[in-house]
Design a protein that fits this description.
The structure is a single chain. This protein has helices spanning 17-20, 109-112; strands spanning 2-3, 10-12, 29-31, 34-40, 46-51, 59-65, 70-73, 77-83, 87-91, 97-103, 115-116, 127-133. The protein has 139 residues and is mainly β. It has one domain (2-133): Beta-galactosidase, Chain A, domain 5, CATH 2.70.98.10.
Length: 139
């Protein structure tokens, strides 16, 4: 059967003091570098053609991710997202959140370049989150 899978976590740009214990020193920062992104057609669906990454804000799917993405809440937390997934969707248009989504294929790849799952050939994806507490920033 054709298959594709991934995760779709949202990360608040600025957790409340109740959520964070103490508010971060600034808004969420994303350290993300990819060698290519999927061009989108008129309907916003990846065409399958890879192009150079464009400027932010993004609602795009990327390939050739150069290193694990890092989300950083200054003076509070840092999160490194690791996955061998070949496609990464980054959605940073909303003012309140950023999405970093490792996926086994670009959106609509189930129709354009599906992974075929067979007995003995399952579709497997893994993601690891590595949290690191940051020292508070003097304000």
């Amino acid at each position: 059967m054709p298959a594709s899978m991934g995760w779709h976590p949202w990360f608040a740009r600025r957790p409340t003091a109740a959520e964070a214990g103490a508010p971060p020193a600034g808004d969420l920062e994303l350290d993300f570098e990819a060698g290519a992104m999927y061009e989108r057609d008129a309907d916003g669906i990846p065409s399958g053609r890879l192009v150079a990454p464009g400027p932010r804000p993004w609602d795009d799917c990327f390939a050739d991710v150069r290193r694990p993405p890092v989300l950083r809440w200054p003076g509070f937390l840092e999160l490194t997202v690791e996955s061998e997934a070949p496609a990464w969707v980054v959605y940073d248009e909303p003012a309140h959140a950023i999405c970093v989504e490792p996926e086994t294929g670009a959106p609509d790849s189930i129709n354009t370049a599906p992974t075929i799952v067979l007995p003995g050939h399952p579709l497997i994806a893994e993601m690891t989150w590595r949290w690191h507490r940051l020292e508070p920033v003097d304000r």
